[in-house]
Amino acid sequence: MTRPLILLVNDDGIDSPGLAAAAAALDPLGELLIVAPRVQQSGMGRSFPTFNDGRISPATISANGQTWPAYAGTVSPAQAVLYGVLELAERKPALVVSGINYGENVSTGITASGTVGAALEAAMHDIPALAVSLQVHFSMHFTNDASVDFSAATHFTRLFAERWLHAGRLPDVDVLKLDIPASATPRTPWQVTPLAHGLYFRPLAPERANLDDEGRIRYELNATLPLDEGSDARAVQDGVVAVTPLSVDLTSRVPLDHVHAALDGQTPYTAPAKEPMMLGVNVVIMRDGKVLLTKREDFHVWCLPGGHVDPGESLAEAACREVREETGYATRLTRLVGTYSRPRWKSGYHIVSFAGEITGGTPDPDPHEVVEMGFFDPDDLPPLVLGHRQRILDAVQGAAGLVVTENISYPPDMPYTYQDLYAVRDQSGLARDEFYRRFFSVQESTPPVQVELAGTDGD
Fold first, then answer.
1. Which long-range contacts (CB under 8 A, 24 or more apart) does 82-88 make?
2. How many CB atoms lie within 10 A of CB 432?
3. Helix/strand/coil (H, E, C) string of 29-58?
């Protein structure tokens, strides 16, 4: 079987230890074609300088006692991709990896990045791409300092390259941008993030007396940039690996007819009203070591009993009501397992998960909500919806008072095609991102808090 061809490029140049670290990460995954600029090309974006003559010569790079053949050229990072695809590759690459870059590439200023620019160039040729950057001290940018530890960056480069290769293309995702904090280890959590808004690196005016004196524009970290909650910059600052999906389609995500009306002198565009935040509950009920699950009538997928909190209800009342309506069982809540938040799903969706026990009632599922119910071994669960597997595992392990941020997708074992999921999405009005079944969820937990539970049903 032919191994996938992986084109590896960078913007720090052929002598960068980050390039060699990336080669070591990718070597087990496929056949490598390595093409890099001959000299430092940071900040080139997706440029095609006409002064580059395109001369290419053989080279080698080494890491961990292993050596790979490579090519060094008088090229920008984006041109390295072009020469690799058009001239050097014997077949179309299955993946392009750009990096590992010295310094994080975060916020909406990433269009200046040569690392990201190379990945976007790959995407323009319908090749999925991964742009990888490691946070280092600002003074180490452009240095190719050999003292930098790339072990964590190597781990995550291999992890996400492998997943990107196996998962296939996702709609409107052309590039995965990966930023690894300096403090990262292979056990560091990761999070799918949007771009922070603003300039992460702030330009400084030249210090010179006359305009005809030499005067380079310098940069510094922008200490005044508000780090949006959940953004790539915030994740890296918090010591979390940031995974940001990017698209080559730069069209503004606003209704085009509204823009036309505003430009045509009609009613000015106003943003649509924000949807109210959604609050839900579910209950992990164990009996004889097995967990109670229901199969939803709308999705025909197994899940924990639960639902939305109605106006005027307490969380405990809503949890007990939902169990009773969906299963027929009366319930007593025994502890708060945790809160599971999806802050970027619509206007925010927060689920409070309880552990509970049956105190009465008989099995009597509501046929309008539940088509089947049963008890399952936690080690042999059916495919579950929307992160419920992790909540069950948390409850079984005795967790209490967790605070969890979810970037939810369907797990890889979900037996549905994209077409199935899109049909459900269109019928239910759920956001498209909720149905990315192959990618990625992350959990961040805080120390337990003590919560008094007063909710009972049937006691």
1. 82/121, 83/35, 83/54, 83/56, 84/7, 84/9, 84/33, 84/35, 85/7, 85/122, 85/125, 85/127, 88/33, 88/35, 88/56
2. 13
3. HCEEEEEEECCCCCCCCCCCCCCCCCCEEE
Q: What are the start and end residues of each CATH 3.90.79.10 domain in the chain?
A: 278-435
CA R_g for the chain? 26
Calpha distance 164→444 (Å, rounded) = 23
Angle at Cα 180 formed by Cα 129 and Cα 202, nearest 5°?
90
Nearest-angstrom CA–CA distance, 261 and 268: 7
pLDDT of residue 33: 98
CB neighbourhood size of 383 (10 A) = 15
pLDDT tens column, 256-310: 887 888 888 776 666 666 667 789 999 999 999 999 999 987 767 899 999 999 9
pLDDT tens-digit profile of 63-114? 999 999 999 999 999 999 999 999 999 999 999 999 999 999 999 999 999 9
| CA 333 – CA 317 distance, rounded (Å) | 10
Buried b or exposed e, range 43-55, using 16+ CB within 10 angstroms? bbbbbeeeebeee
| CATH code for the domain defined by 5-206+216-246 | 3.40.1210.10
> Would you call the peptide bond into 180 cis, given omega within 30 degrees of 0 as the criterion?
no
Residues of the chain with CATH 3.40.1210.10: 5-206+216-246
pTM of the model as a whole: 0.62
Tokens (6 digits) for 86: 């058009």
Which tokens is 427 given? 């019928």
The residue assigned the tokens 């990618």 is: 439
| 224: Cβ contacts below 8 Å, ≥ 6 apart | none
Beta strands 370-376 and 290-296 are: antiparallel
Tens digit of each residue's pLDDT (9 = 90 or more) over 191-221? 888 998 888 888 889 999 999 999 988 888 8
Enumerate residues 6+ apart whose C-beta is below 8 A from 265. Answer: none
Nearby residues of 424 by Cβ (< 8 Å), 6 or more positions away: 298, 299, 430, 435
The predicted-structure confidence for 176-190, as pLDDT tens digits, reads as follows: 999 999 999 999 989
Residue 209, token pair as written in the block: 């007396």
* Fold of the CATH domain 278-435: Nucleoside Triphosphate Pyrophosphohydrolase (3.90.79)
